[in-house]
Amino acid sequence: MPESKGREKRAYTPPAKPKKAKVGNPPWFVPVMLGLMILGLIWVVTFYISGQQYPVQAWGRWNLGVGFGLMMAGFAMTTRWR
């Protein structure tokens, strides 16, 4: 009885490894985060030291809101820092 020809098997190639997602933040992230917090602190301190005349006299006590808003924006960025 004749022998059947076998098929040639391909060499095993393992599946390609998926590329790892880049973990981390862009290089500008930390300087902006720290800059916002420091700018907010400087804004509030300037407001108190100048007797409520600077940075913007027309805003009055809203200068505190601006300063604390800048600090909170920087703080909110810390939650995304990796």
Automatic annotation (TrEMBL):
Protein name, entry field: Cell division protein CrgA
InterPro entries: CrgA
Family classification: Belongs to the CrgA family.
Entry keyword set: Cell cycle, Cell division, Cell membrane, Membrane, Transmembrane, Transmembrane helix
GO CC terms in record: plasma membrane
Biased composition (Basic and acidic residues): 1-11
Coiled-coil positions: none
Pfam hit, one: CrgA
Parts of the chain that traverse the membrane: 28-50, 62-81
Stretches the record annotates as Disordered: 1-21
Membrane topology: Multi-pass membrane protein
Gene Ontology biological process terms in this record: cell division
Organism in which the protein naturally occurs: Pedococcus cremeus
Protein's job: Involved in cell division.
Compartment annotation: Cell membrane
